[in-house]
Design a protein that fits this description.
Structural class: alpha/beta
CATH architecture: 3-Layer(aba) Sandwich
CATH superfamily: SPOUT methyltransferase, trefoil knot domain
CATH class: Alpha Beta
CATH topology: Alpha/beta knot
Strand content: 15-25%
Largest sheet: 6 strands, parallel
Number of strands: 6
Order of helices and strands: EHEHEHEEHEH
Strand order of the largest sheet: 3-2-1-5-4-6
Distance between the termini: 10 Å
Length: 155
């Protein structure tokens, strides 16, 4: 599996997500700009001693990531987590090499990008009393559903 964080802003979330990725053999893709420095002690503290083992890929832009991973690759599937769709994350059939993208904590994936890929938008159902779940929680929820669907094949 591949987790993609578009412009993550909070080092603690990214550190927690990195730890989850290590323990599930999931690749972590970070798309710049980042709201923190990767060498910052805070991100390493959040990821504990797992951070050194993260399969980390850092991309200069969304276009850079897209052109090198998705565009022209017929087998690459990407899903975009958003609160702006009705399609639940449990409604899709994940494959072991899929990409699951999450936007910045304060604003999510840009709407124009979501609109260009509506069939790939997924959401976690929740009451409408809050904006969204914490990013690291949302990643864990969707990633574990995807892993469940591929029988927890971590290799």
């Amino acid at each position: 599996m591949n987790i993609v964080l578009l412009n993550p802003e909070i080092h603690v979330n990214t550190g927690n997500i990195g730890r989850t990725c290590v323990l599930t053999n999931t690749k972590l893709h970070l798309i710049k700009p980042l709201g923190f420095e990767l060498g910052d002690k805070k991100i390493k503290r959040a990821g504990l001693d797992y951070w050194k083992d993260v399969q980390l890929f850092v991309w200069e832009s969304l276009e850079d990531f897209w052109s090198k991973n998705i565009e022209g690759n017929d087998s690459a599937k990407i899903y975009m987590a958003t609160t702006k769709t009705k399609q639940k994350y449990t409604d899709v059939k994940f494959q072991k090499d899929d990409y699951i993208m999450f936007g910045p904590e304060s604003r999510g994936i840009p709407e124009d990008f979501l609109n260009a890929h509506k069939e790939k938008n997924i959401t976690i159902p929740m009451l409408p009393i809050g904006r969204s779940l914490n990013l690291s929680n949302a990643v864990a929820i969707i990633l574990y559903e995807a892993l469940k669907q591929v029988n927890f094949e971590f290799e």
